[in-house]
Amino acid sequence: MIIRSINNLHINAPRTYLMNTEAAGTTVFRLRNTTGFGSSWAIQVGEMGEEQTEVLILSGNPPAIGTLGTSTAASTFEHPSDTPVYAIKFNQVVFERSTSGTAGTATPMTNGTITYQADRTLTQFDDTSGSASYAYRTYFRNSVLAVNSTESDWITSAGFDFYSLASLRERGKRKLWDASFIKEDIVIDDRINELKEELVKGAIQVNEDYALGTVDVGFDGTDGFGTVTTADFSQVRRVDITYNSTDFFMATKMNVNDYLPDEQFSSVHPYIHWRGDTVFRVRPDENGGTARMTFYRFGTTMVNDTDTLPLIMRPFTKAFTDYVKLNAQYKDGKATQDDIDAFVGRETNKFVTFLAPRMKTGPTMVDVVEPVNSWDGWP
To answer: Most buried in the list 15, 19, 112, 241, measured by CB within 10 Å?
Structure first.
């Protein structure tokens, strides 16, 4: 069973360029800038997925502009001037296995520590004794510093869910004339999340309560101020106040000029006003309490490979993969921004049209045109 790990350490890593052509077999690289390059860190010389790209380890000495030594081995290939060099920190991928599926604990496999294969888009390991019931994880490791990254999501023989970010990304790549045309997965992920954001707006058009969230926020008993710190808070929809954690009363919104400084308020009819985007004040403040906020949420971003589309968007996976293809065409000069805007508009309209009948609520009314007999007449 072959398990693969995406080579993405170069994304957002510090980057510089070779000042001169460096011959094969050298242990010294002359760099234009060493900011962000740490002692004993791994460096990637060349672009990910390109032939002759390789990974080396810096020496234990602090990097200096102009020269930079490697401690483990000399370079295998010649690298021309202006070749990019990335401070990727880790030089190995460790493959772990759980024989009890995702419910078990993943432990490193024998011979499962593999050198980071930067000349490919993936680093892979063949578990010759693997089973369809096993689950796998990976993490990156620096063999000199003996430090590890966090673990990956679980990988199973079934692969990723059809509606997951990883599946959408790979299906989008398969629609390209060259699957490696867009080299960085984060670029594809950004496009997927952009379209998802537009469809969330479409869902809110149909049902304004679609993207609601709830959070409890405390306010103090001195002046009644509280602050919402929830990351996806967009706008408040409703606020219920409790002073004893049991009885809740719906708050009435007011402006700061709607009351006098010495005005008296009742705890069974609380008021709330906002100061800025996230700071609020409750009246009366009593001895403090809790404001239960029902709020409009920003659309959650798909970040992990295992993150999946919301249920209502799952009939539209083709729109996401087509959007990836269209953006690749834009990058290649074969599509325009107008083409992208038109595509988003069409797909959003399709989504809204599909969604609208599902969001209808309330009783269905039947008109009585004419009584059939006396029993069908109105009294």
So the answer is: 241
Contact 80, 53 (CB under 8 A): no
The domain limits of the chain are 1-159, 165-205+303-359, 212-297
Which tens digit of pLDDT belongs to each residue from 24-78?
A: 999 888 888 888 888 899 999 999 989 999 999 988 776 666 666 665 678 999 9
Contact 57, 45 (CB under 8 A): no
Residue written as token pair 């952009």: 194
Nearest to 121 by CA among 182, 163, 205, 174: 182
Residue 231 identity (one-letter amino acid): A
Cβ 312 vs Cβ 352: under 8 Å: no
Give the span between the Cα atoms of 187 and 189, in whole angstroms: 5
User: Can you tell me the distance from the alpha carbon of 211 to that of 300, in angstroms, rounded to the nearest whole number?
Assistant: 10
d(CA 25, CA 61): 20
The structure's pTM equals 0.63
